[in-house]
């Protein structure tokens, strides 16, 4: 039976094996790589034009794999990322806002492709200019260690804002949307913007890194037991992190008073990343009286699979309302 495109896209966003060991897959062959190239209409831009910082000790070679050997050539994941990038999808009817989209993969890989998919297409249909981000991983020996993905996220949102004029959106209406472990990257971007994670390299780095809103879908949030996602925590912090390290990388424990409005969506039956991750962040926002909207669906699992073919995922409709609401 052919895998539905909506299921392929859902897998691509959350990295379905995030809760288990990596599924064996072969690197793409040359002919597959040609099919994997960006289609007309999508723009691909490197985050670091002169190479990513802090890579002197990195020896692992970047790989692109098919998530299902012999399967859809656009159902891919990146391992050992050395040259992270942004893929840009322009809307037919812009609404004046942009979204930086951060896929998941358990910090072991990034489940993304350069062809885009139904989620970024759906957001573009709502009028958002969508930037899909690929990012480096902490276990590959980068000097920034656990902060390497934050470096890429801060660079990415600055690059988004740098494109505001020529792409026709408001640089003060730039949201971030993160999925699974990508939700942890997005959560850190939304809470650690008061410090630069890297040294400036050009004029783009004068732009702010605080997103104007953040949507976290079935996100990894905490590194504290008992609700930490074990795969993400191990990939991010190693096998024996200290309590101080776990605390430092738990998003719910480091909310600034000027955090952007947060949107959280998860399923009660998620067996990969416990919905308590979202609850912990909502409760932390509640304590500080910070704007936060929480949706816990009864069903949906890891990926919020309740999809209406006519109207798109429920979380997307709710996120659109949240992001376009006047405040």
Automatic annotation (TrEMBL):
Residues 97-283 form the BD-FAE-like domain. InterPro entries: AB_hydrolase_fold, BD-FAE-like_dom, GDXG_lipolytic_enzyme, TAT_signal. SUPFAM superfamilies: alpha/beta-Hydrolases. Keywords: Hydrolase. Pfam families: BD-FAE (PF20434). This is Endo-1,4-beta-xylanase. It comes from Brevundimonas intermedia.
């Amino acid at each position: 039976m052919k895998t539905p495109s909506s299921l392929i896209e859902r897998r691509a966003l959350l990295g379905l094996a995030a809760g288990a060991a990596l599924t064996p897959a072969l690197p793409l062959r040359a002919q597959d790589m040609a099919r994997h190239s960006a289609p007309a209409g999508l723009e691909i831009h490197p985050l670091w034009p002169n190479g990513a910082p802090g890579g002197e000790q990195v020896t692992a070679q970047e790989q692109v794999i098919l998530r299902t050997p012999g399967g859809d050539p656009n159902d891919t994941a990146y391992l050992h990322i050395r040259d992270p990038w942004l893929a840009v999808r322009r809307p037919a009817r812009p609404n004046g806002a942009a979204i930086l989209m951060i896929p998941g993969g358990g910090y072991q890989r990034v489940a993304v492709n350069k062809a885009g998919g139904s989620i970024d297409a759906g957001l573009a249909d709502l009028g958002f200019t969508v930037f899909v981000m690929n990012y480096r991983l902490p276990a590959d020996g980068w000097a920034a260690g656990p902060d390497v993905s934050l470096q890429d996220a801060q660079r990415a949102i600055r690059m988004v804002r740098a494109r505001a004029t020529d792409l026709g959106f408001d640089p003060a209406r730039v949201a971030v949307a993160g999925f699974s472990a990508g939700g942890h990257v997005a959560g850190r971007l939304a809470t650690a913007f008061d410090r630069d994670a890297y040294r400036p390299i050009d004029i783009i780095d004068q732009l702010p890194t605080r997103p104007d809103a953040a949507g976290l879908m079935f996100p990894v949030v905490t590194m504290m037991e008992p609700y930490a996602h074990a795969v993400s925590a191990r990939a991010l912090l190693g096998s024996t992190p200290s309590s101080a390290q776990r605390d430092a990388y738990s998003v719910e424990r480091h909310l600034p008073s000027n955090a952007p409005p947060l949107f959280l969506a998860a399923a009660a039956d998620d067996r990969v990343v416990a919905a308590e991750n979202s609850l912990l962040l909502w409760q932390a926002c509640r304590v500080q009286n910070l704007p936060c909207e929480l949706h816990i669906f009864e069903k949906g699992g890891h990926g919020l699979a309740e999809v209406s073919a006519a109207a798109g995922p429920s979380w997307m409709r709710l996120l659109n309302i949240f992001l376009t609401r006047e405040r």
